Structures are given as structure tokens and as C-alpha cells.
């Protein structure tokens, strides 16, 4: 893709600090000289509370026509019980992930100075459309003492293999190429066996990439004790969700963690969002750290083929040496732009 292309971007600021951090992302894109045509989409908790709208087919189809989607954060304030659990998660976020076939959730981590993972860089490649998130299961005899609730984990050979292949593709670019499968093969023997066989199969195509396996409980210890052992972690949807919060915490805090919900087959746009949530408690105070959103923006630029801008931004964030704790949201961006 030519670097002078105009990219059409759907922008979902969302709730709480979401719009604040997305505004900083747009400032950074402009400073980098990348041409985008942003279109705002009013979606999330505030929209739902106003008129009951979550996401319909027409809006999903409209989103599909963009080159990428930039999202801030979605969700009500803690303790706000007006939105039934799952309404926005399943109805909006997962609907976009499934509907746009965003089958990879790519989450890179770089331990900031002073963090447990200081100096370590690794990434989690999380399967993003299957596992326990797929919606399999149901309830029988609801509300009785004989109630039965099941929620199975869906793992297709096709879904696992495309995820594992993406992990190996990411690994070949590393200085020390390594893929670690994280699962619980000693208990989840059906799903674990499928993942393990797929990793062995795909590894045959990548002789230069080392492979390893950790049980998910042990991986929680290693992420804290020895994060340097990891290159690319590949794992299922739920393990990846949990591990990426832990990885964020040991790398300096969730305020830094970026993610790309990717459709590497490019049958539709990919979606880029910080791992953190709406943080209503600090919304409007100017205290939100925009670096997670800005790092997600770097992933978006990379995906759009704006490789020069993506590398410049990535490097500026990696080398960022100002004290985020004393800077305002826009102040962080000001300091970052000086270092571009
Ligand atoms: C994340 C979030 C989502 C997830 C929620 C909000 C549905 O926690 O992106 O990690 O579980 O995937
Ligand atoms: Mn999560």
C-alpha cells in the first residue's frame, strides 16, 4: 500500500476515558503526517442508556466498509446496574469481533522501567472468535434448585490453525523466534490435544522458530518471575483474556497495554483498542494515560501499511522517558510528539 493513501477510519470513542484517549490517537496520526478520513460512530454505554441502541446489522455492515476501526473504551461506570451484563460485551464488542472475523487478538507488551518485566518484550496471540466466548451452551430449569448451566469451549481445527499460524508468522520477525503454547492440556484433554497437535503440525513449516509449552497456571508464575522466557504466547480466547491483564500488570500497568483485533485475511477491517476499560472514575480529570491507545494506533498504522509512521511511533513510545504520573492526558501526547 502506498504511504500517501487516504485511510477511512471508523472511530468509536465510546465511554468514560475512551473519547479522551482516542482524541490523543488522532492528534498523533496527524502529527505523523498520515492521511485519514475519520468518521465518528456513537456506540457504547452512553448511547445505550440514551436510546437503547447497541449495534444492528446495518451499522455492522457500514463498519465493514472502513479500512480500520479505532476504539477507545466501552462500558458503564462500576456499580451502574442499568445495563444487564453482557449487553455491550456480547452485543457490541463480541459482535464486531465475530461479525468482522477478527480472529486474532494481538497484544504486545514491553516492560517499562521499574516494572517486573522491565526490559522484556513479548506478545500474546489470543484466539478471538472461539473458546468459551463462542456462546455455546445454555440454561435448563432456570431458577430452580435443579438449574443446569453449561458454557462449552468451542475449538475448531480451522480456527486454531489460523491462530497458531499467525503466532508463528509473528515469531519469525523476533530476534529469538519462539512460540509458547499456553493451555491446560492435563485437564482440558480434548481442546488441549487439538491445540498441541496443531502447534506441532504448524511448527514443521517454521524450522527456525523454537516451540515451548506451559500450563496456564504455571504461565501465571512465569509471567511474574521470568517474563524474559517468552517471545510469542499463543493461547485460546479465555486464557488469552486473563493472561493479557496479568501481562499488562507486570509490564507497567494496564495503562500501557495495546491490542489489535485483527482479520489478517483482510476480508474486512481490523479493530484497534487499548486493553483497559472506560475508567469512569477518572473520566474528565485529564489523568487518563493515552499511551495504550497510542500504541494501539501504532498497530493500526502497521496494519494499514504505514510502516514508517508505525515504527516511528512505536520507537517513540518504547523510548518515552517522561514521568506519566505527573502529566495530563494531553501532556503525555505533547511530550511524545516532541520525541517523534
Ligand atoms: C478484553 C475485554 C473483553 C474480553 C470484554 C470487555 C468482553 O476484557 O478485550 O480483554 O473479555 O475480551
Ligand atoms: Mn480482558
What does this structure look like?
The protein is an alpha/beta fold. 39% of the residues lie in helices and 19% in strands. The protein is built from 11 helices and 12 strands. The chain has helices spanning 18-31, 45-51, 57-64, 87-99, 157-172, 189-203, 216-225, 237-250, 291-303, 307-318, 329-338; strands spanning 7-14, 36-40, 68-73, 104-110, 121-127, 138-140, 148-150, 178-183, 210-215, 232-235, 258-262, 270-274. The strands form 2 sheets. A 10-stranded mixed β-sheet has the order 2-1-3-12-11-4-5-10-8-9, with helices on both faces. A two-stranded antiparallel sheet has the order 6-7. Helix 1 (18-31) links the parallel strand 1 (7-14) and strand 2. Helix 1 (18-31) packs across helix 9 and helix 1 (18-31) runs parallel beside helix 11 (329-338). The radius of gyration is 20 Å and the shape is globular. The mean pLDDT is 97.
Model regions low in confidence, pLDDT < 50 over at least 5 residues: none
**Radius of gyration (Å):** 20 Å
- List the secondary-structure elements in sequence, H or E: EHEHHEHEEEEHEHEHEHEEHHH
Give the helix proportion (percent range).
25-40%
Secondary-structure-based class equals alpha/beta
Bound molecules: 3-isopropylmalic acid, manganese (II) ion
Terminal Cα separation, in Å? 23 Å
Strand order across the biggest sheet?
2-1-3-12-11-4-5-10-8-9
What profile does the largest beta sheet have?
10 strands, mixed
Mean pLDDT: 97
Strands, count: 12
What is the subunit arrangement here?
A: single chain
Range of strand content: 15-25%
Tally of alpha and pi helices: 11
Overall spatial form:
globular
Amino acid at each position: 500500500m502506498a504511504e500517501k493513501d487516504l485511510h477511512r477510519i471508523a472511530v468509536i470513542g465510546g465511554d468514560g476515558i475512551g473519547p479522551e484517549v482516542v482524541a490523543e490517537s488522532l492528534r498523533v496520526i496527524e502529527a505523523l503526517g498520515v492521511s485519514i478520513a475519520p468518521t465518528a460512530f456513537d456506540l457504547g454505554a452512553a448511547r445505550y442508556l440514551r436510546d437503547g441502541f447497541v449495534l444492528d446489522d446495518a451499522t455492522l455492515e457500514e463498519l465493514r466498509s472502513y479500512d480500520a476501526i479505532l476504539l477507545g473504551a466501552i462500558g458503564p461506570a462500576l456499580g451502574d446496574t442499568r445495563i444487564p451484563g453482557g449487553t455491550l460485551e456480547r452485543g457490541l464488542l463480541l459482535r464486531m469481533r465475530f461479525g468482522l472475523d477478527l480472529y486474532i487478538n494481538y497484544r504486545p507488551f514491553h516492560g517499562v522501567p521499574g516494572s517486573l518485566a522491565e526490559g522484556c518484550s513479548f506478545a500474546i496471540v489470543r484466539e478471538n472468535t472461539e473458546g468459551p466466548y463462542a456462546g455455546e451452551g445454555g440454561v435448563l430449569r432456570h431458577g430452580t434448585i435443579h438449574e443446569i448451566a453449561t458454557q462449552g469451549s468451542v475449538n475448531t481445527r480451522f480456527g486454531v490453525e489460523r491462530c497458531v499460524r499467525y503466532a508463528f508468522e509473528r515469531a519469525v520477525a523476533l530476534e529469538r523466534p519462539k512460540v509458547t503454547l499456553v493451555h491446560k492440556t492435563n485437564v482440558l484433554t480434548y481442546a488441549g490435544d487439538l491445540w498441541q497437535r496443531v502447534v506441532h503440525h504448524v511448527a514443521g513449516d517454521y524450522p527456525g522458530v523454537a516451540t515451548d509449552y506451559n500450563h496456564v497456571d504455571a504461565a501465571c508464575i512465569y509471567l511474574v518471575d521470568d517474563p524474559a522466557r517468552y517471545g510469542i504466547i499463543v493461547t485460546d480466547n479465555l486464557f488469552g483474556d486473563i493472561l493479557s491483564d496479568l501481562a499488562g500488570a507486570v509490564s507497567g500497568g494496564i495503562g500501557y497495554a495495546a491490542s489489535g483485533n485483527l482479520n489478517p485475511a483482510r476480508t474486512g477491517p481490523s479493530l484497534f483498542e487499548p486493553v483497559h476499560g472506560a475508567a469512569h472514575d477518572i473520566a474528565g480529570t485529564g489523568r487518563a494515560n493515552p499511551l495504550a491507545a497510542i500504541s494501539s494506533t501504532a498497530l493500526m498504522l502497521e496494519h494499514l501499511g504505514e510502516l514508517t509512521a508505525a515504527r516511528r511511533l512505536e520507537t517513540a513510545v518504547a523510548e518515552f522517558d517522561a514521568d506519566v504520573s505527573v502529566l495530563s492526558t494531553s501532556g503525555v501526547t505533547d511530550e511524545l510528539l516532541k520525541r517523534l
